[in-house]
Write a structure and sequence with these properties.
It is built from 5 helices and 12 strands. The chain has 186 residues and is α+β, with helices and mostly antiparallel strands. It has a single domain, classed as Ribbon (Umud Fragment, subunit A). It catalyses: Cleavage of hydrophobic, N-terminal signal or leader sequences from secreted and periplasmic proteins.
């Protein structure tokens, strides 16, 4: 009888430790996120399931072209690509991205651009000054400028301005569902 009681206590302890570790991993290190909508096509599709690393930006800062999840409102998170980091001037001219006056390649847009009809553009011309209410000339400290990969169907920094870094949940690191789309985030 004592053996059964000890065995049950060991199982209960093991279960409690596993539950506490799972909660810690979920709250502190990683979070599952489901993509809602077409704004990141073709990189991420509607209903893709991702793992978001919360610790990446505890130890470092977002880098240009990271895919991040951030709090857009109290009830809604967005997933977008970081285009500008503090100190960057961001502009698009003739469907080409310019950061600090230099043209920057965006290979993740190649497939999307190929789907467009002739003479159709993916990204309308803009400058950072034009799309921020504050008229920022560069991305301010503690903020990032984000765009969706599906530029003609994305609510992003062109509409709501720069994103405070303290609103960033984490970096998308891995797509795990559906099975045919399993891959590291790029």
């Amino acid at each position: 009888m004592a053996f059964m009681k000890n065995a049950w206590m060991e199982w209960i302890k093991a279960f409690l430790i596993a539950a506490i570790l799972a909660i810690l991993v979920r709250v502190v290190l990683f979070a599952p996120v489901v993509v809602e909508g077409p704004s990141m096509l073709p990189t991420l599709e509607n209903n893709d399931h991702l793992i978001v690393s919360k610790i990446n930006y505890t130890l470092g800062k977002p880098e240009r072209f990271d895919i991040v999840v951030f709090h857009a409102t109290e009830r809604r998170d967005y997933i977008k690509r970081v285009i500008g980091v503090p100190g960057d001037h961001v502009a698009v001219e003739n469907d080409e991205l310019y950061i600090n006056g230099e043209r920057v390649a965006e290979p993740y847009l190649k497939e999307r651009k190929e789907q467009l009809a002739e003479n159709q553009i993916l990204t309308q011309d803009f400058t950072l000054e034009q799309v921020t209410d504050e008229g920022y000339e560069t991305v301010p400290e503690g903020h990032v400028f984000v765009l969706g990969d599906n530029r003609n169907n994305s609510t992003d920094s062109r509409m709501f301005g720069v994103v405070p870094m303290d609103q960033i949940v984490g970096e998308a690191v891995f797509t795990y569902w559906p099975l045919d789309r399993i891959r590291l985030a790029d």
